[in-house]
Specification:
With 140 residues, this protein is of the alpha/beta class. The protein has five helices and five strands; from the N terminus they run βαβαβαβαβα. It has helices at 19-29, 44-54, 70-80, 95-104, 118-126, and strands spanning 10-15, 35-41, 58-62, 85-90, 108-111. The protein has a five-stranded parallel sheet, sandwiched between helices. Helix 2 runs parallel beside helix 3 (70-80) and helix 3 (70-80) packs parallel to helix 4 (95-104). The longest helix is centred in the N-terminal third of the chain and has 11 residues, at 19-29.
Length: 140
């Protein structure tokens, strides 16, 4: 009898210049067996380098970062890795920021205050089951 096909976890790269937020996001995501954090970056340049090396399926990209921001990093990554989903994250949830990330090629945008709903957004854009409704603990 063949074994059931178990999908490999979705690979995720977390990019944010705030170390406490990045670490909290990684801790939160580790609760979900359907995803695995393959790397962390603190700026857009590191995000590009890591994306090209790791080829993650999903990148959680902070919009405002020093040196190279999330909009330009997303644009450059999507040119080379068009199949990678980028989710823009920002503490500012405004139309200008959303539209800039969309124009750069992001699959979605989310205010950081709603980060606890990321598993559901990741599932929506990838078509992969990530979390049960019961596992909606916040980022602490």
């Amino acid at each position: 009898m063949p074994l059931p096909c178990i999908a490999e976890p979705l690979s995720i790269l977390v990019v944010d210049d705030s170390v406490p937020f990045r670490e909290a996001l990684c801790r939160f995501l580790k609760k979900f067996a359907a995803v695995t954090v393959v790397g962390e970056a603190g700026d857009g340049n590191s995000a590009i380098e890591m994306a090209l090396r790791l080829v993650p399926q999903v990148i959680l990209m902070d919009v405002k970062m020093p040196r190279l921001g999330g909009v330009e990093a997303t644009r450059r990554i999507k040119r080379v890795l068009p199949g990678t989903h980028v989710i823009g994250l920002s503490s500012q949830d405004d139309t200008v920021t959303r539209e800039a990330m969309k124009a750069a090629g992001s699959s979605a945008f989310m205010a950081k205050a709603l980060s606890h709903t990321l598993p559901h957004l990741i599932a929506k854009i990838t078509g992969r089951h990530v979390a049960d409704d019961s596992s909606s603990d916040g980022i602490s």
